[in-house]
Amino acid sequence: MKGIILAGGSGTRLRPLTGALSKQLLPVYDKPMIYYPLSVLMLAGIRDVLVISSRAHAELYEELLGDGSRLGIRIAYDEQPEPRGIADALVMGADFVGDDRVALILGDNIFHGPGFSAILRDSIERLDGCALFGYAVHDPQRYGVATVDASGRLLAIEEKPAAPRSRLAVTGLYLYDNDVLGIAKNLSPSARGELEITDVNLAYLAQGRARLTELGRGFAWLDMGTHDSLLQAGQYVQLLEQRQGEWVACVEEIALRMGFISADACLRLGEEMANSAYGKYLMEIASRHAVAPVG
């Protein structure tokens, strides 16, 4: 399976922070925002990743992440001239995906919870069409809202409904089989001139091949699109790391635990940042090389 991170957009709700910097490069406590979606793909076992960003910031992502070899993965890049909807990432990434399946994740989403890696891998193993992830929210009117049956089969998706039939918001993580490339290519733009991801999901729904896994109690899903949500995400990560002593979305640690890199390679990465708490943590992790499975 290939992975795509959509890190485009203009981040207008976060101005003036995003006046000169891409939203997904902003810090979320102790690491760049894009580390969080990248960590999700890595936890799913995905080692081929495409980062789609705006033209103005493409070089910054390449400088930060390189070709991915330091993490034992491969990272490619593409530039989106202007925001054209989430589903446009599937059109842009068609050659990258090729004949494979694809996981698409939004660059401003945090997912964190017990057993998440196992949930991801199970969803990929059982994938037959489209797999979505839902999260119960108190204000579903702001989101795409899913209705499912007892087995998780998707029954309906309503975009920002005035009278929601459930509290399940569709999160910014989507798993698809290869058919999605044709579906996205043949989409008609919305009134806003964008290719809507909901239309992709509805196409799978019409085929009876869409499922949703609810991320229940104990999970956190955070969408960092506003100043308040960005601050809250940073505070959430800070609290977990300081109380538990284990870091969230540390991509080097995940690479080590997933077997993408060796303990020696992780140690070297830590030594490059030895003056920072992040580097010291990497060196500690590498030295004891925990064998417990990620997630």
Derived structural class: alpha/beta
The tally of domains stands at 2
Q: Number of DSSP strands? A: 13
* General shape: globular
CATH class of the largest domain: Alpha Beta
Distance between the termini: 19 Å
CATH-defined fold name of the largest domain: Spore Coat Polysaccharide Biosynthesis Protein SpsA, Chain A
CATH superfamily of the largest domain: Spore Coat Polysaccharide Biosynthesis Protein SpsA, Chain A
Largest sheet: 9 strands, mixed
> What is the average per-residue confidence, as pLDDT, rounded to a whole number?
92
Helix content: 25-40%
Radius of gyration: 19 Å
The helix tally amounts to 11
Report the CATH architecture of the largest domain.
Alpha-Beta Complex
Fraction of residues in β-strands: 15-25%
Sketch the topology as an H/E string, one letter per element: EEEHEHEHHEEHEEEEHHEEHHHH
Tags for this model:
2 domains; globular; glucose-1-phosphate thymidylyltransferase activity; nine-stranded mixed sheet; 34% helix; metal-binding; alpha/beta; transferase; two-stranded antiparallel ribbon; Spore Coat Polysaccharide Biosynthesis Protein SpsA, Chain A; 11 helices; Nucleotide-diphossugar_trans; single chain; 295 residues
